[in-house]
Amino acid sequence: MRGLLIGRFQPFHLGHMYVIERIAEEVDEIVIAIGSAQKSHTLENPFTAGERLMMIFKSLQQNNVRRTWYVIPVNDIDNNSLWVSHIRSLTPPFHRVYSGNPLVKRLFREAGKDVATPPLYNRKEYSGSEIRRRMLAGEPWEELVPEAVVEVVREVDGVRRLRELAESDRA
Ligand code: NAD
Questions:
Q1: What is the mean pLDDT of residues 31-51?
Q2: Whole-number pLDDT of residue 39
Q3: CA of 171 to the centre of ligand 1 (A)
Q4: Is 67 helix (H, G, I), strand (E, B) or coil?
Q5: Rg, Å, the chain Cα set
């Protein structure tokens, strides 16, 4: 049995890690699709698909997830009704989709897929927007992500990138 988790992972955080650990209790193999793969270097989407892939790969290795996993970047397409086929064309076959995102759940259900909603884990703090807000504000964010993500963000100078993106070129 193979399960699919799709997310933007901007950045990958402990809420995502928790969901993956729950999924690993139910399936033999986990397909992780990195959505909006084409987006990077914006305030909402600061990290490239390759950087997010490193975050996920290293975090799963460090946390000893004892399942086979695949990490696949997927670009957005400008057509929601074709999106499930787009995902299926790029991923190994999967039997169940795990998502808390209403649009994602709706699209997969309409396509006849089995959809499960994992319980939320401290969503107020374990949230990409809260982590990006803290990075910009100079507040501690490291406790909200796996250690491997701290290392990747450091390697790519991610906090400085985010701060520079927030600067205005107006006087
Ligand atoms: P996300 O990174 O916000 O979340 C990924 C998953 O983790 C979600 O299921 C979310 O519910 C879960 N999660 C997040 N924080 C959690 C926490 N604290 N505890 C438990 N679970 C938590 O990503 P997302 O917004 O769900 O990503 C959906 C992706 O699909 C986006 O890239 C979007 O662009 C893409 N998409 C594209 C199209 C299209 O191209 N037409 C259509 C639909 C969706």
A1: 98
A2: 98
A3: 37
A4: coil
A5: 16
**E-assigned strand segments in 10-138:** 29-34, 68-73, 96-98, 114-116
Query: Does position 30 have pLDDT exceeding 90, yes or no?
Result: yes
Kindly provide the residue ranges of all beta strands, DSSP E only, lying in the chain, ordered along the sequence: 2-7, 29-34, 68-73, 96-98, 114-116
* 71 phi and psi angles, rounded to 5 deg: -120, 120
Q: Is the pLDDT of residue 171 over 70?
A: no
Give the Cα separation of 106 and 104 in Å (integer).
5
In terms of pTM, does the model score above 0.90?
A: yes
DSSP label at residue 138: T
Nearest atom, ligand 1, residue 126 CA: 18
Instruction: Please indicate whether residue 99, judged by its CB atom, sits closer than 6 Å to ligand 1.
Output: yes
Name the percent of the chain lying above pLDDT 70.
99
Q: What one-character DSSP code corresponds to residue 18? A: H
Would you identify the CATH topology of the domain 2-166? Rossmann fold (3.40.50)
The mean per-residue pLDDT over the stretch 61-89 comes to 97
CA of 7 to the centre of ligand 1 (A): 4
The three-state secondary structure class of 133 is: helix
Using CA atoms, how far apart are residues 53 and 72, in angstroms rounded to an integer? 8
HSE on the CB side for 141, CA within 13 Å? 24
